[in-house]
Every structure is written in structure tokens, then in C-alpha cells.
Amino acid sequence: MKIFRQLTLLIFISISTYSFAQNSDLGAWYMYFGNNKITKKLNFHNEIQYRNFDGIGDLEQLLIRTGIGYDLTENNNNILLGYGFILSQPYVNGEKSENIEHRIFQQYITKQKLGRVNLQHRYRLEERFLQDDFRMRFRYYLGLNIPVTNKEMLPKTLYISAYNEIFLHADSPVFDRNRVYGALGFVINKNMRIEAGYMNQIQENKNRGQIQIGFYNNIPFTKN
Questions:
Q1: Which of 34, 26, 32, 24 is nearest to 49 (CA)?
Q2: Which of 4, 7, 14, 215 is the most buried (most CB within 10 A)?
Q3: Distance in angstroms (rounded) separating the CA atoms of residues 85 and 67
Q4: Where are the beta strands (DSSP E) in 17-157?
């Protein structure tokens, strides 16, 4: 019964945030993240993000990312080489336009544990091939997960998730954007979890809020 109440609470939050996004100028992001072991050291990253100007239907951006990673130490200190396809449909002078970007990226992730707090640092370098331009960008992400209903991130655990990520251009102006995020999550089992939260993005001295619902899948492709 306790598990049922926890899952019901998270679903209620997800539905509430979806409804709130539909009736405001907030954006909404629906996200899937896969990080699946291929061997003991290698992992396959796969990701789809469907981003809307409103709750659903008015596409802002479709982002597809994939890559192969390698653990320098057991289940930690991961280096990864990846590719991203980004379809953007921004409004320009009230009219929708369409842009396609191809992106190559390299990243390093390291994890730490401080009591109940699970920390993750991600350093990412991106080479961005836009339709009429080429840009390079550096990103630093600091995220944390804190279990609430258990001492560890065990199955059927509610947890708090938060992150801050800064984006820096290789040329001027150096500052691109900053994202701050907070959410409530639920560990479904040892390989799957779900989160519902809110992210605020500062870009060009403008703030924009995003409702986010994310699903995380770590089911390994191998038993070894």
C-alpha cells in the first residue's frame, strides 16, 4: 500500500505539471534517457527529448543523442564519444522557422557519494554543425539525487533530484546559458526510474521555465 501511494503521488505530480504547462506560457520537455551496459566496461547511451513551447503539440525542439562510453573504474569515471541530431522550430518575428543541427560531443562523468547524497559531475565538449555556422561549446553539470523514503536509491524509493548546468561558448560572448532544475523522482526498480520537475533556463538575460518529465532506463544488454 505504501508503494502504491508513492507511485500515485508521482503520477499525480506528472499530470499536474502537464496540465499547468498547457494553461501557461511554460514549456514542457518529455525525455527518455538510456544508459545500457554492453560489456563490463562499455555502455551505450541513447536519449530522446521532445521539447514543446506549450504542453504538447507546438514543437520547439526534437533532440536525439547517442554514444558509446567506457568506464575507467568500475561503474564510475566514464568517458564517452557521442553524436546528436537536433531539429529546432523557433519563432522568428512571429513565424516558425526550422533549423537542423548535427553535433559531436565528448564527455567525462564522475560520481561521488556523501552520506545520502549521490553527486554527479559531467564535463562535456560539443562541436556543433549548424546550417550556416560551426560552434564549439563547453558544459559543466553538477547533479544530485537524495533518497527520501530509504537511505539508499533502492527500488520503490522516492527521491529528490536537482542540478545546475552552465554552458560556455569557445568564442565571444563566452556565456551561453544556465539551467537550474528540481524534481521529485521514484525508483521503479534497480534499472528504471522516473522524475517530474521544473527547470529554469537563463539565456540572453531572459528566464524561461520548463516543466520536465523524464524516464531513465539502465537495463543492461549483457548479464556480465
A1: 32
A2: 14
A3: 12
A4: 27-37, 42-52, 59-73, 76-88, 91-92, 95-96, 99-114, 117-129, 134-147
Identify which of 105, 183, 176, 121 has the alpha carbon closest to the alpha carbon of residue 148: 183
* Beta-bridge mates of residue 197: 183, 212
Its pTM stands at 0.87
Instruction: Write out pLDDT tens, residues 30-62.
Output: 999 999 999 999 999 999 999 999 877 789 999
What domains, with CATH codes, occur in the chain?
2-217 (2.40.160)
Collapsed DSSP state (helix, strand, coil) of residue 6: helix
Q: Which long-range contacts (CB under 8 A, 24 or more apart) does 174-182 make?
A: 176/137, 176/203, 177/201, 177/202, 177/203, 178/202, 178/203, 181/212
Q: What is the largest CA-CA distance in the chain?
A: 56
